[in-house]
Structures are given as structure tokens and as C-alpha cells.
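User: Need the bound-state model for pyridoxal-5'-phosphate:
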Amino acid sequence: MQTNSWYHIHTALYHTCFPLSSSVIWDYDASNLPHKNRQDKGPPGRGAFKRIVQLSPTLKTKPDVSSFGVDFTDHMLTIEWSSTEGWKAPLIKPFGNLSLHPACSSLHYAIQVFEGLKVYRGDDNKLRLFRPMLNMNRMASSAKKACLPAFDQPEFLECIRRLVEIDQDWVPHSYNASLYIRPTFISTEQSLGVKKPCRALLYVIMCLAGTYFNTNAASLWADPKYIRAWKGGTGDCKMGGNYGCSLFALDEAVDNGCQQVLWLYGDDHQITEAGTMNVFLFWINEDGEEELATPPLDGIILPGVTRQSILDLTRNWGEFKVSERYLTMSQLCSALKQQRVKEMFGSGTACMICPIRHIAYNGQVRNLSNIYKEEI
Ligand SMILES: Cc1ncc(COP(=O)(O)O)c(C=O)c1O
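Assistant: Bound-state model below.
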């Protein structure tokens, strides 16, 4: 792999990864938009299933893509569940506030999970979701750990597809921007008892997402006093609580002049994740082999869709060893000293690939910037 391989992987993910897997590619037909308040028959083979679509009477002016997660589309999807009645009909309706009971247990005990995926507009003007079934699977396993009910994954994905179809004009005509989809699953249990919810709400909102991808590689702050996740915990799930409780460490990282936390684990300071990204090290390993390595999915790592795609893609290239293995700070520091580190980068839906330039650890700043060329 050449210098700036993170960039090659980024480009490869963007251009070639879609056909790698069960990636779903949908082509949209604008003439097929639903009429106001019509009932949609579900996908073939699921005759009893009905989606209700209430189109917004007024459409918002679409702003230029600026920051992430502030400009939401015209519609949203909601699906209510209760232990007595099961799942209600999915409802696509104008984007708006939720009305929640003040004792709702997602507000008090963070009984909540979510997902994040994107829809891109290609040069051919077709819209593509990136490996969405991986997000559906991950959401189902997160929900299981939060004691939220099981849902029909292909059916839910079909509802998302319909929502995207309705708001398709929001998908930017740009290589650098996309539409971010945020499926969210909350307990709507109306009591203060800490218990398995009897009521829940699955909903989906969508917003504009600009590029996170730029030449400014990330600087990380690694301090073992904070732990993102632990064995037997929920670090392998996308639960809101995992993120809220990481803010304090992030604040300290920023106070120390860094952009993100490099999360360490255990007495040997294992490298686990960088901010909300999986982490990869491309290096000459202890045995002199060229290796792309990332920590294994042992319960404390979020099984990233981008992580899996990088593993699939680079294994398919067959150019170097690709491993899921433990990496410690002392291994990284020796490799840096011996100039065996070729690149280090984070991966995630938000940025795809984000190169790492500095790591502040044990009172020293370890500089990785000499291994990157400035031009992209
Ligand atoms: C903690 C954490 N790790 C890794 C990732 C990357 O996952 P993905 O590639 O599915 O976006 C995310 C992104 O949501 C995350 O929150």
C-alpha cells in the first residue's frame, strides 16, 4: 500500500465498496411518490403490512450543507410498539416534535439505542445506501441489550427506503455531502420503575451531512484514567448512554489541545477506539510483516460498518496482512520509535477515514505527521 493509504481506502470505500456485500442499491422513480395520506401496501410477500404516509403540506427551503445534524428533512418515520398490541402501522409524517410522558424511561434511564447511516447520490444521480442491513443487524442487537423489542429488519429497512424516497430531493448533489439517516429506538414506558419497557417508539429522522473528510488529521488524547467500555458492558452497542458519558473525557481532551480521545483499556493500555471511530494501524509488525491491524470485536469495540468494509476491502486486495488483534500503547510507541508505523487512522460513517496525526500520551506528544504527505 502506498503512502496516504487511508486516502486510497477512503476513495475505494466511496467508489467501489457498494458491490462488496449485501449492499442495497435502490434506484428511485420520482413519478412514484405517494399521494397525501394514502396507505402504502408493504413490500411483496408481506401483504398484511400497511404504511401510512401523511405528506407535509409545505416543504422547507433546503439550505446549503453546513454543519452536521442541524438541518432536518421534511418527513420522519414513527412506529409505536406496546407489549399488549405489538407493532402499530409505520407512519411517515411531517417532521416535528415528539410528545413524551415526563416519566418516560428513556429520559430517566437512557433506555435508548440508535443507528447512523448515509444515503449518497452518485454521478449517475441514483441514490445508494451503504450496506444498510449491517445497521439493521447492529440496531437489533443493541435493542436486545436494552430490553427493547425485536423488529422485522427488512421491513424496517423498507420503511426507511420509503422515507428516503419521499425526501429524495434532500440528498445533496455533491461528492462531499450526503443525507444522514438516524434510526432511533426509545422506551416510552411511562413510569419511574427501572424495568423492561412495555411501550417503545422506533423512529427515523434524516439530516444533511457535509464532509468530515479534510486534510486536517486528528489529534488524540490518550489517558487510561477514562474508559469508554468494559467487558460485560454495552460498548459494542449504539446506546445513547455510551456517548453522553464520554463527554467529560472529550472535554479534557479539548482542554489539552486535542480533538478526540484515544480510548485505552486494561493495565497494558490497549488501544480500542478513537473518539467515535474504530481505529486502524498500518505498520511493520513485531515479526517484520506489513500489517493492517484493528482491535478484535471482543465486546468493548463497536462493530463498525466502515471497519468491516475496510477489512473486507483490504482482505480482498490481498496486498498485506490484515488482522483483528490487540494493540497496546507500548507496541505503538516502540513502533513509532523504530519508524515502523506507516499510518494510523480512524474509521466511521461520519468521516469514512480520518488520519491520525498526534497522540498525547504519558505527558508526551507522539507525532505521526511525518508519515503523511501533505498533498491529497
Ligand atoms: C463508538 C463508535 N465506534 C465506531 C463507530 C464507527 O461505526 P460505523 O462505521 O458503523 O459508523 C461509531 C460510529 O457510529 C461509534 O460510535
